[in-house]
Specification:
mainly alpha, TM2D1-3-like, glycoprotein, TM2, transmembrane
Length: about 110
């Protein structure tokens, strides 16, 4: 694939991935043929900042932040325990952005492999 397209994709979408994932994303995109470019453009990544805002505003206690990123099991766990009596909610304020980026990487990998 064209290096300029790949670099533009990375500039526009780097906030959706951890910094150490960017080289793997670039390598994978460079090895793709042009026919997959449309698929890459249609991937819907979750915004880590949105997940953090949901978690802080009050959705963290109810597990809405975990439902948002696709962690249904953890979302149900947080919902039933009221965010682990608030402890799990506070811990997620620090972890939810990384978890969102990991989920985005999983989406990228599963849709292109």
């Amino acid at each position: 694939m064209d290096a300029q397209k790949v670099d533009m994709f990375l500039m526009m979408n780097s906030k959706f991935f951890e910094s150490y994932h960017l080289n793997a994303v670039r390598d994978k995109l460079m090895s793709l043929d042009e026919s997959k470019w449309g698929l890459v453009q249609t991937l819907q990544f979750k915004d880590p900042t949105t997940a953090l805002i949901i978690s802080i505003v009050g959705g963290g206690t109810l597990g809405i932040d975990r439902f948002f990123i696709g962690d249904t099991g953890l979302g149900i766990g947080k919902l039933l325990t009221c965010g682990g009596l608030g402890i799990w909610t506070i811990i997620d304020w620090f972890l939810i952005m990384g978890a969102t980026r990991e989920k985005n990487m999983e989406l990228f990998q599963t849709s292109l492999y």
